[in-house]
Amino acid sequence: MRRFLILAGLVALLVPLFLPVAALAEEAVDLPTIHPDPSLAARQRGEKVFRDICNQCHSMKFHKNSQDNKPYLAKTPAEDAKKAFGKVPPDLTLMAKARKGGSAHIYGILTGYDPDKNSDCTSAGGFNKYFPGNCIAMPSPGVTEAQARDVVAFLAWTAEPNEVQSRQMGLPVMAYTAFLAALLYLWKRRVWEPIKAKH
Ligand code: HEC
After folding, report:
1. Which residues, judged by CB distance below 6 Å to any ligand atom, belong to the binding site of ligand 1?
2. Fewest CB atoms within 10 Å of the CB: 20, 47, 85, 122?
3. How far away, in angstroms, is 138 Cα from ligand 1 center?
4. pLDDT, position 198
C-alpha cells in the first residue's frame, strides 16, 4: 500500500510536466510544425517585424514598445481598417494564446496565402490555407519565412512570457523534479523503516 502511495505521489509530481506536451500534440493536426525560438535575439527581430509591418493594422495594447515604452496602437484607425478590409484587425498581444494551435496558427496564417485560389474568395485578403473558412480579410503582409518565424517568436512571448521561459528550461526542471522525488523517497524510507520495524 505504501509503495503504491509513493508511486502515485511520483506520478502526480511528474504528470503536470508532460501535460503541455500532450496538449500541443493534440492541436498540431493540420497546422505546420513550429517551435518558437525563445531567444532574446529572435524576439527582438520579431518585434521589429511587428513594428515595421503588422503594426500598420494591428495594435498590441497590452505590450509596450521597447523603443518608447508605450503600448502599441494600430497606425491605421479601426474604422478605416474596417472600411478597407471589412473587419477590424484584432489586437495581437494575446493572439498566440487566443487561437487553437497558438504559434502554429499564426505561422500558418502568415505562410498560408495562395493567390491562385483567390477567385474562391471575395474577402479583402483572398485565400489562406490555414484561416478557418479559407477566405481572410487580412491582405498578405508579404513576410519572408524567417520574418514569420521571428514575429511568431515575439508573439509567443508576449502572450505567455513565462511559458517561453519554461520551455527553455524544460529539461533542467524535469531533472530537478526527478532528483527531488528520489531524495524524498530515500528520506521517507529512513524515517519510516525504523518505525515499521518496531511494529
Ligand atoms: C493591411 C492590414 C494588416 C496587416 C499589415 C497585417 N494584418 Fe493581420 N489582420 C488584418 C485583418 C483585417 C485581420 C482580420 C482577418 C479576418 O478575420 O478575416 C487580421 C487578422 C490577423 C490574425 C488573426 C487570424 C485569425 O485566426 O483570426 C493574425 C494572427 C494576424 N492578423 C497576424 C498578423 C501579423 C503577424 C502581421 C504582420 C506580419 C499582420 N497580421 C499584418 C490586417 C492586417
Report:
1. 49, 53-54, 56-58, 81, 85, 87, 89-90, 92, 95, 99, 106, 109-110, 131, 136-139, 141, 143, 151
2. 122
3. 5
4. 76
User: Partners of 113 in the beta sheet?
Assistant: 128
> Helices in the chain by DSSP H: which ranges?
2-27, 40-52, 78-85, 95-98, 103-111, 145-159, 161-168, 170-198
| 128: three-class secondary structure by DSSP | strand
Q: Using an 8 Å Cβ cutoff, are 127 and 135 in contact?
A: yes
Which residue ranges make up each domain of the chain? 30-168
Per-residue pLDDT tens digits for 61-85:
999 999 999 999 999 999 999 999 9
60 phi, psi to nearest 5 deg: -135, 80
CATH of domain 30-168: 1.10.760.10
Q: What is the pTM of this model?
A: 0.76
pLDDT over threshold 60, residue 24: no
DSSP string, 168-197: HTHHHHHHHHHHHHHHHHHHHHHHHHHHHH
